[in-house]
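Data deposition worksheet. Section B asks for the primary sequence of the deposited chain exactly as it was used as input, without tags or linkers unless they were present during the calculation. Section C holds the resulting structure in token form. Section D is free text for depositor observations; keep each observation to a single sentence. Incomplete worksheets are returned to the depositor.
Section A, Depositor: J.P.
Section B:
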Amino acid sequence: MTMRDLIYNVEKWTAYLWKRLVKESGVVNDHVERGKTKLSTFPLFAREVFARLYSPPKPLAKTRPEDEWAKALHAALDELPAFKKLAAHCAHNKELASAATASLLEQIVDKLPDPPTPLADPEMRRKEVRGLLDFLDKLDAGDAARAQVEAGVDAATHAGKDAVAAMAAYGSSLDADSLRQALRRSVDDTATEVEEITSASAGLSGLGGASHVSDDTQALLSSTLRSSESMRRLGMLAGRMRRLAMGKRRTRTRNAASELSDITTGNDLSRVLPHELMKLTDPLLALDFFRAFVERSLLQYELTGKEREGRGPVVVLIDDSDSMDGPPSTFAKAAALALADLALTDRRPCRLVRFSHRINATVDLRAGQDSTAALLAFLAGSVDGGTSFEIPLRIARAAVDDEPIYERADVVLITDGEAELSAEFLNEWHRYATRTGLATYAVHVGGSAPAVLRALTPNVVELRSLLPDRLEESLFSAIASG
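Section C:
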């Protein structure tokens, strides 16, 4: 079928993406084909639904009578507030737009009534008439075939009018209230799911302020989050923790220069002296004020302060033992992502380590690099086995010893359990930390922290309940200020 527009003018790039989607997605293709058995022009409508979600197209100035059914369906979508929210979340994200389109088309096809007789596309008759008329123009006035061609034109014209009438009647028969009712739950559910995926995607990507996400990465994120509810929960919690952590960093930056030290010149209106601002009340003096503003020669306060940048890299050790299964594991991973975001924003390298009675996975994160794919693989691992503190701590120390970029690292241990650390190891760790400037933090999830953690470090955070806010001052503030 030649693609034409029904109600909306679909852009070429959007049309290309739709063509690829129908070819590559068996689910979408199945819905389109089922719709086509009811309405020959349903594939055109399906393309417009995708376009409205991906890159809102402009409506056509004029529509054809046979396309009233499509206008009625689009109008039913327009009257659902959740559809606008859904389109906003799917905008320029072909993965989310594709998933949402598939969900909506399924409901629409199911609710479309079967026509009493097969409905032909009047456009095919129009093309037939145009072809016959072109042929007729080429015949001589006395040619015997003219009568036969003219009869064909009349027959095709009548058939076209009948097809238009049948399609228009089908459109008029659609129950708008019934369609809205059928679509409401689907649109609401799809909007909620896409909103969660969007929020979770933001929590799992863009660490350290990295803004570029490739199409492949975006596709991987969307696919992972659509298929994994646990990963969606992790992403949304990580987003919340990252906002808390970055709030502590912004507070540090704002407070960095807050001490009045002198009078200087410039054009920072928040620091301009009051008598300079008084000039604005006099028309003549106002001109002098604007001249000084342009020349940066207004008298203003000079503020000084010392901004404490993050001291060094961060190594986060995440307990991956069986007891961490469920919410504790999700909480620990989300906290690790927030710490990584803090580190990368200050261009400090970060290493995340999952451990149980062994090292289960490791991922290195660097500022300015898109490590989303590696991070998703790291986070997807499941809990396994018992708990050993010595193994991950030795891995952290090896990073500091062997890799210059991890010099003077902050080491954060997140666990819900208890494991033995010998007096010899603890003494050795403390001597090493003092000598190298390494700082150690321990986060205990659930109940009172065991004595072994307090023996390891005085910087112990006890979390009797999984509340992200508890980490804001006790951990995020410490890592942000160094």
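Section D:
Strands lie at 8-9, 58-59, 259-266, 298-304, 314-319, 350-355, 359-365, 410-415, 439-445, 460-463.
The first helix runs from residue 12 to 24.
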